[in-house]
Amino acid sequence: MKRIVSILLVVVLGYFVYTSLYVDGFDMAVSDNRQTSISDAYITKSVTSENESVTYMESTDLENGSANIVTAIVTDYRSFDTLGEVTVLFLASIGVSMVLAGFTKKYQFKMKTNRILKTGARLVVGLALVLGVYMFTHGHLSPGGGFPGGSIIGASILMMYLSEENFRARMASFKWMESLAGTVYVLIGIIGLFVATYFLENFLPTGTVGALVSAGIIPIVYILIGLKVGSEVSGIIDQFLTEEVAS
Amino acid sequence: MIQIAGLILILIGLYGLITKRNIIKMIIALNVLEIGLNLFIVSVGYVQDGIAPILTEVNNSSGLIFVDPLPQALVLTAIVIGMGTTALSLAFARKIYATHQTFDLNEMGVEE
Amino acid sequence: MSQPILLIAIPLGLAFLSIILKKIKVPLLVLGLLFSSMLVFFIEKKSYIIGGFKPPFGINLVVDDYNLYFIIIVNVLFLVLVLANLSAVKPMATVLLVASAGLNGLLLTGDLFNLFVFIEIASIAAFILLTMDKQFLKVFHYIIIGTLASSLYLLGIVILYAQYGTLNMADMSGLIDGGSITPTIAYLLIFAGLAVEVKLLPFNGWVKGVLETASAFTGPLIGSLYAGVMLVVFGRVFGGVLNLSGTMVTSLTIIGVITLLAGEFMAFQSKHLRQVWLNSSIAQSGLAVILFLQGLHHVAVLVIVANIISKFVLYLVSGKIAAVIGHDKIADLKGIFMNKKALGIAFTITSLSLIGLPLFFGFFVKINILIALFQSSNMWIPALVLIAALIESAYVIRLLVTMWQVGEEGEKPETIEKPTFSLKVGFVTCAISIILGLMLLVSGVYPDLVINQSVKAGNVLSVNDEIQVFTMEGGLE
Amino acid sequence: MTITMIVVGLMALSLVTYVVSKMSKGLGSVLTILGPLVALLFFLLEGSGIASGSSIGILQFGATKLGWFFSVTMLIVYGCVAFFNPYWMKKLVHPSAYNMLYILSLAGTIGMFFAVDFIVLFIFLEIAVFASMFIIPFGKSRNAAVVYFAMSTFGSFAFLYAIFMMYGKFGSFDISFVLGQLATEPTTAIWVIILMGIAAFVKLGIFPFHIWLPMAHGNAPDTFSPILSGGLVKIGAFIAIMVVAIAPTYEVLKNSYEVMGLPILIYIVLIIAAISMVVGTLMAIKQDDAKKLIAYSSVANAGYIIVGIALNDQLSLSGAMMHIFAHAIASAAAFLSIGAVSYRTGTTKISELGGMIQKMPITYTVYLISIISMAGIPPMAGFISKWLLFQSLASHGLMFIGAAAFFGSVGSFLYVFRPLSGLFLGQLKPQHNHVKEAPIFMVVPMVILSGISLFFGVLPNGLLNFIGKIQVELGVEGITTVDTAIMGNNGLLDPTLVFINFGLGFVKAFIIFMSLSKSRKVGLMDTYTAAEFVYDPNVYHYAKSYYAPIERLYEKHPDIVALYKGLVQRVVDLGRLLQFIFFKTKPGTTALFIVLTIILVLWGEKIW
After folding, report:
1. What is the model's pTM?
2. Cross-chain residue pair B110–D585, CB shorter than 8 Å
């Protein structure tokens, strides 16, 4: 009975949302004065400059040198959001370790691991770590970036936990990495404020669009994010794979 | 169409939140809701015949039709934030399990 | 140097640092907050660009009359709160730094999506801080509902983005005013999202569990600072950005009115100190929301200012009482202030200001609310506001009388023994409560400064030349 | 000295008093005596033409004869009662706070009487209310303060709402301007009159808002009951005069349905006032606590005041104002004498006392004079006011109201006699054998108050002439006096002549009394019963169930207190219900409410 009522409620809500969002068919009602220039400006990188078009490996010294426009937005145009995002993850990792404060002993799985798993895991972990690093160093050129790269690093650490019974990551070094990456991120922002004019401003030359060493601070920021996310995710995984010590 | 799918996922998530009494199931419902939301956000940026907003050797000019990159950037943020809250709520779930020996709110016998 | 971004960046940087510099966590915290509360006095009023891209392309921080005074109040009170609980904050130093950055971000940001990020930062920080009270199940409730709320808010702004193509508040405001459609559903989702944080009635299931057991530290933080900041955000979004239709204003005002009345009803029946204050905060939030929705921003600002300061003291003292006595059941707190008169007087002034008695700041808040409501030719809302105020006066006075007087009903005073228990509360708490109480008293006798500032703040959201306010200096202006 | 200086000075004095009291309680309480007396001196020296003084911010005052009259009445009461304060310093829980609040409440009332602006009036009204409210729990009851404050706030908020209704129409708070404009907006005007009338009723303690009077007056510290009854209650009368005489009430109501030649609203007010007289009288008769008894008598007397104000003609208004004065003085004196008894014996229950006339003869005399005045018996001031009121009632031909007023007067004989005989006369209890007369500084103010009652009962014309001037200021024909006589509608009254007659009669009776043989005194415990052992001689006290036969006539009367209790219980229940519904521990419920609310609002959007 409760479920039927809930289903009914949800369906009614869906109906109301649908009818007020969509005028005809599946097209959302859109205001006639809709602002379209924002994304166009991101694509042509013409927010501060009068830039007509961008060509891969040709255009140089633009306001933003990232070939990946999403990366351009994430780490440059709206970099402040990303700082906040990193902070959320940072908070989550602190929160997990504080909530599970009494949980210190490593969790023991019931199933024993075997040699195939161990060897395979080591192989994959090595590859995964490389892939992760590749991802956040090439965030401004290809899909991916600091967050997926960091997550892959975290996943490889998880794999080590699952395959090796006695494996315990050295959390202290992760903490150092996390802390330093975060601090440097903020410092870069503040340097932008003092060296240039604005917080988190891209104060390095942006180079050629598409080159590995290009886009000013974007790769640096993404590497920092990658390291930070990687260490935070590892920290969360480490904390979850523990048991409460009976005191 | 994808927007509708996103909305339906959101509604399913809401249904789960309303009916479920199990902490883990609630977290799952919240995640379903967030995934629907993320789907919706990405689909908002869809442009007819648009391509991924990355300049490569093939798609090498900004004159091409790209999909709106901004929602993709937003969704990246939203996903990470969602992950953070999920991790935190799972930690709470473990802590609650450690004290109450159950995940079911009905079995905890908490006073109203 | 006086960049408001430093209010966010410095605490964040210190927070990141503090996890490796564990030993000097608390000094870092105090340093960061001290820096913030000094910096706030030097900030100029303008829009600050971040990352070098002008809005609406980049994110900007806005400092104007509306948020500047809240930034000052919140930062200073945050520092004060930490100083009052210095022994308790050690494990939470990092989170507190982030929370301070989050609150400043909420107040400063000029971008709707950035606001979402800061809502998440602030609320996750709150979740973690609330674990200090060891009520994991209650906080879990808050996590689920808080996350649901921010998801709804995000859905709302994404729909707005789809319909108007911008995320910047000022830009969005202009586009909405000239737009061809009314994005009702987006408004409603944003409302639902913010309503959870500002504790409007059907949305606030988490409040009781969390605040009922709040300590002298989490109580003022969540019940006063967070609540105030969220109301400021609500005003910014609903007063300054969105443009609601008449029907929508009516339906949302009804929610506000229900919150106001129900909050007072619930507070009237509450038997525990902190339960009274949490219900009263709910009612005050309802009041502020009603005023924002009715476009009476300047009085809403007054309500928020009064509420932040008075609830700060009330939660602080109540939390300390609960910590010292071991419970906060009002009936068992007879004559608690008799051995701690200074604290009692501060508490009394604050609660008298809350119910709007003359000589205290709350009186001018009440009078100006009524003036504003009658000016917009409202008849029902002021009547309901007065009914709510009547109930509020009854329970606050009942509480005060209990806490000052010993003895059973019908006993003669000269036959009653003085209470044996003593309220041992630190000097800092007393000093803070007394200073804030005195501020309420002084601004109750000379409220012009605060009122004029509120009018300026209200005019940021929507310019209204015909505003009349009642001040001590000039009467009706 | 200007009014502004006096009011601000009193407010400053209240703070000074607090600081001084912290150092020395006695000195602080002396300040509470000096404050009102000095202020009274200034008022009397400057006369009713006292300068209003320059305004400080919004604090602007305007001298009126009405305000002067009320202020002087109030200051006499405060000044005389303050003499009791030093004796109570040891008994109070928070003596410094008491002294501060005492002066603060005085400042509030004085400020209120001279306000030219509604908001200022409201500010001082509230100051008076909350200052007095905090004193009440220093006495026996904690609940009384809450009930008093809740009731009073109800009235204040009705008043506030009325102020703002006028503000909404006329855009100003200026009293004379706004009230002058009122006739142009009849619909608003009627609401304003009703709301302000409710405020006046609440402050005066008119039925059905009277329940706070016995609670607050009966349970307040003995030194503060006289202030409440003699002073603060009269705030309601001030508001009532403002509604009827300053506001153009009769002009607004001139087109309404009429009963007995009066607008229906006025007639309803008269009926309510009549009910108050009856209820107050009946309830006073059955009280065992002397303070509660006087409190209920205040309810009855408030009825007379309201009748006089509501009729708003030459005789009735002067009668009402005379009654305000007479009752303030008399009830203050009565409460003071009970307070003096309580100071010596520690109780105010009639059945626990008896024969106090032997030990406290002066207190007895004071009490006797004040209750004679309250009951409206010549030659006291209360008689003059009642005579004027009856004159006015008779000339309007208001039979039923007149009957109620008559009932009230007769009933008052019953209730004033109860403490008289139970408390002062009768047999002295053995445990009170060592009781002495009240200290000299308690006797002095009581004697002064009695003297005032007697003086204005014999030579009321000076006061009445001034009241006549107030009436002219209010736009009503002034009361006229000839030599020592007062002009009524059908004949005149010469109080001096009445006094001489009464005096002669009294002397005659006294001679007869003295010449008769003396009665033999029997100790209270010297009980004689037929072969039955007396376990508790106290139950044979003759003041126990004094009016049992009369009380039995209406012992099953409906209790208005139960009504209020029910109302409060409903609020509590509703709050519990809401809390139960909305604050579940399960997040799912909250999510459900969120979904429901969104659906409802969207639905509302769809139908409109």
Report:
1. 0.90
2. yes
